[in-house]
Write a structure and sequence with these properties.
0% strand
Length: 90
């Protein structure tokens, strides 16, 4: 229980920091294919043998993956522009 609260607390802090930094672009950090894969993992609890266990593990995986994607997107340096060497004063 303590570990789950720690994961959720950390996730909440990461979402807060990402929302302050990125604003509405926060949702662009997660590619659509990855979001669909996580949704599939969550939906698999409907037909699994142990739906409670499957749902808990799928939610933990979704929280972990989303936290990593938001962290990398928030902390990554800005992408280089396409203007070439002239932008760098060379």
């Amino acid at each position: 229980m303590i570990r789950q609260l720690a994961y959720l607390g950390t996730f909440a802090l990461i979402v807060y920091a990402a929302a302050r930094t990125r604003g509405a672009a926060l949702f662009a950090a997660m590619p659509a294919a990855l979001a669909l894969l996580l949704l599939w993992c969550l939906l698999s609890a409907l037909w699994g043998g142990e739906p409670g266990v499957i749902a808990r593990r799928a939610v933990l995986a979704a929280v972990f993956v989303a936290a990593m994607m938001l962290s990398v997107d928030t902390l990554a340096p800005p992408a280089p522009s396409r203007c070439g060497a002239s932008c760098w004063g060379r």
